[in-house]
Amino acid sequence: MNLPEDPSTPGPAPAGPASLRASDADRDRVADRLREALAEGRITAEEHAERIDAVYRARTYAELEPVLHDLPAVPGAAAPAPAVSLRKEAEAAPPPPPQSSSLIAIFSGAERKGRWLVEPHTSATCVFGGIELDFRRAVLSQREVTVNITAIFGGVEITVPPGVRVVSSVATVFGGVEPVEDELDPDAPTIRLTGLVLFGGVSVRRREAGASRAALRRERREEHRRRHEERREERLAERRRERDERRDAR
Question: Fewer Cβ in 10 A, N or C end of the chain?
């Protein structure tokens, strides 16, 4: 005989807010806050890499919350606050709006900077022009994104924040790629550069988000001065070598 179920028997407990599944936008917001914290000096590059890894592994709000438990919710806030809102209607910073994944500069210039969403694949094409890509406040759509570069008599300038790796496989013909020196965790967020440079160049620099334009100009002048000194030393060394060879021949 089948007995009726006891109405007093409790059923499964309803899931709490922390057990709800996190969305890609939630993970993007947490990753964006971690980059800001790294630029502010609140966490180290190693801590940033570890936390970013945890962010992209997280599936629920409960797994996201510990990542930012010791950081202010807003840059410059005096006291820590919960970093991940469990209420969808209380979201403070919406994800950046999507933009075109292609940048083209022909006899002109183009740039992408500020807070922008980096698609898995971005193309940058410049012919007798220049393109500037600033990733310091950008939100990566996934752990590794690809930027395909086509530069013909043109140049692409890329700026990345600390804690982000840059891997280049760009082919060059009478051109060059100046990569940033990376000693980061292989699992750190990665920007992979591909494509072709013909009579042009690609430069990659790592800077914090708060760097001023005056500081960037000073850094560029110092870099040009350093390159000039290196070329001068190479020319002097070549002249000394030729002089020694002529003396030995006599």
Answer: N
